[in-house]
TrEMBL record:
<protein>
    <recommendedName>
        <fullName>DNA-directed RNA polymerase</fullName>
        <ecNumber>2.7.7.6</ecNumber>
    </recommendedName>
</protein>
<dbReference type="Pfam" id="PF04563">
    <property type="entry name" value="RNA_pol_Rpb2_1"/>
</dbReference>
<dbReference type="InterPro" id="IPR007644">
    <property type="entry name" value="RNA_pol_bsu_protrusion"/>
</dbReference>
<dbReference type="InterPro" id="IPR015712">
    <property type="entry name" value="DNA-dir_RNA_pol_su2"/>
</dbReference>
<dbReference type="GO" id="GO:0003899">
    <property type="term" value="F:DNA-directed RNA polymerase activity"/>
</dbReference>
<dbReference type="GO" id="GO:0032549">
    <property type="term" value="F:ribonucleoside binding"/>
</dbReference>
<dbReference type="InterPro" id="IPR037034">
    <property type="entry name" value="RNA_pol_Rpb2_2_sf"/>
</dbReference>
<keyword id="KW-0548">Nucleotidyltransferase</keyword>
<dbReference type="GO" id="GO:0000428">
    <property type="term" value="C:DNA-directed RNA polymerase complex"/>
</dbReference>
<feature type="domain" description="RNA polymerase beta subunit protrusion">
    <location>
        <begin position="38"/>
        <end position="148"/>
    </location>
</feature>
<keyword id="KW-0808">Transferase</keyword>
<keyword id="KW-0240">DNA-directed RNA polymerase</keyword>
<dbReference type="GO" id="GO:0006351">
    <property type="term" value="P:DNA-templated transcription"/>
</dbReference>
<comment type="similarity">
    <text>Belongs to the RNA polymerase beta chain family.</text>
</comment>
<keyword id="KW-0804">Transcription</keyword>
<dbReference type="GO" id="GO:0003677">
    <property type="term" value="F:DNA binding"/>
</dbReference>
Length: 290
C-alpha cells in the first residue's frame, strides 16, 4: 500500500496522539515488554531464601519471623550477543526481577483452596477472610480513600439516611464546604460551619433576593412536582414570618456563629458576606447581585 502525502501526514498525527483512556494504555504493556526483551512474565509461589536455599513461605511464619509475605516475579529474557560479527539470540529463563507482596487467600497464596484442616495445620483461622498483606510481619490493609472533587456537587446520604448535596467550593483566597440536606419531613436546609445550626433553604433564597415563592419554584422548573417538593420548606419559612429579603438577612444574621467576623465593610451584615463570599465560593457575585 502506498500512502499519499496527506494520508501519510494523518497517520503520523494519529500515531503521535496521546493515549486517551486507561484501557488503551494497558494494551501498550505487551508491546513495551517486547521492546525491552521480557517474555513470559509470571508470579511464583511465596518463598524466602535461607542460606542460599529457597524455602516456601506461609503467612503464619511471616507473622512470627517479621518477614514480608511475597512471591518472586519471573521473566524470560532474550538478548542479542555479537561474536566475531555474528549475531546470536540468547534466552535466559526464570530470571527474578523483583518480589510482589501476595494478598492472603488470593490465587497466588498458599492458603488458596485449602480446607479447614489444612488451614489449621498452617496456623490460620478458617474464618479469616484474607484480603490483606503481611509486610515485615505486620498485617497491612489497602485503604481506599476518596477525596471530594472541588467545585462539584456530590449527592449522597448522611448518617441518618437523609438525602444531601454537598460541594467543596475552592478559590485562591477561600475554601468552604456547603451542604444542602433534606430532612425526613421533606424540609430542605442549608448546613454550613458559619451557622449555629441548619437554616431553612427558603430563607436563604429570600436572602439572595428571591422574595416570591413562585420565583423560586420556577427557577427549578415548571413541573408541579417541584412545587410539591418545596411546599414543606415554603410553609416553614412562612411560619417563621420571613417574607422579604431584609427579614431573611436579619434571620440569618441571628444564626451566624459569634466567632465568624467579617473583614468587609462594617455596613454589610455578616449574613450578606457569607452568602456572597463563602456560600459557593467559586461562583463570583458582583455588586451583591445573587
Amino acid at each position: 500500500m502506498v500512502l499519499r502525502p496527506n494520508q501519510e501526514g494523518m497517520d503520523k498525527q494519529f500515531l503521535a496522539a496521546p493515549v486517551k483512556s486507561v484501557v488503551d494504555k494497558y494494551q501498550l504493556v505487551p508491546e513495551f515488554l517486547k521492546v525491552r526483551g521480557y517474555t513470559n512474565v509470571r508470579v511464583g509461589e511465596p518463598c524466602v531464601v535461607v542460606d542460599s536455599v529457597m524455602e516456601q513461605l506461609n503467612p503464619h511464619r511471616c507473622r512470627l519471623s517479621d518477614v514480608t509475605y511475597a512471591a518472586p516475579v519471573y521473566v524470560d529474557v532474550k538478548y542479542v550477543m555479537i561474536s566475531n560479527g555474528c549475531k546470536n539470540v540468547v534466552t535466559k529463563n526464570d530470571v527474578v526481577i523483583g518480589k510482589l507482596p501476595v494478598m492472603l487467600r488470593s490465587c497466588c497464596c498458599v492458603l488458596h483452596g485449602k480446607d479447614e484442616d489444612e488451614l489449621a495445620r498452617l496456623g490460620e483461622c478458617p474464618l479469616d477472610p484474607g484480603g490483606y498483606f503481611i509486610v515485615k510481619g505486620t498485617e497491612k490493609v489497602i485503604l481506599i480513600q476518596e477525596q471530594l472533587s472541588k467545585n462539584r456537587i456530590i449527592i449522597d446520604t448522611d448518617g441518618k439516611w437523609c438525602l444531601q448535596a454537598s460541594v467543596m467550593s475552592s478559590t485562591e483566597a477561600r475554601k468552604s464546604k456547603t451542604v444542602i440536606v433534606m430532612s425526613k419531613e421533606k424540609k430542605i436546609y442549608l448546613d454550613m460551619n458559619q451557622y449555629d445550626n441548619k437554616v431553612p433553604v427558603m430563607v436563604v433564597m429570600k436572602a439572595m433576593g428571591m422574595e416570591s415563592d413562585q420565583e423560586v419554584v420556577q427557577m427549578l422548573g415548571r413541573d408541579p412536582q417541584y412545587g410539591a417538593l418545596l411546599m414543606p420548606s415554603i410553609e416553614e419559612c412562612a411560619s417563621l414570618c420571613v417574607y422579604t429579603q431584609q427579614e431573611a438577612l436579619e434571620f440569618l444574621e441571628g444564626k451566624v456563629k459569634f466567632r465568624f467576623y467579617s473583614s468587609a465593610d462594617e455596613k454589610e451584615s455578616r449574613a450578606t458576606v457569607i452568602l456572597r463570599d463563602v456560600f459557593i465560593a467559586n461562583i463570583p457575585v458582583r455588586e451583591n447581585n445573587f
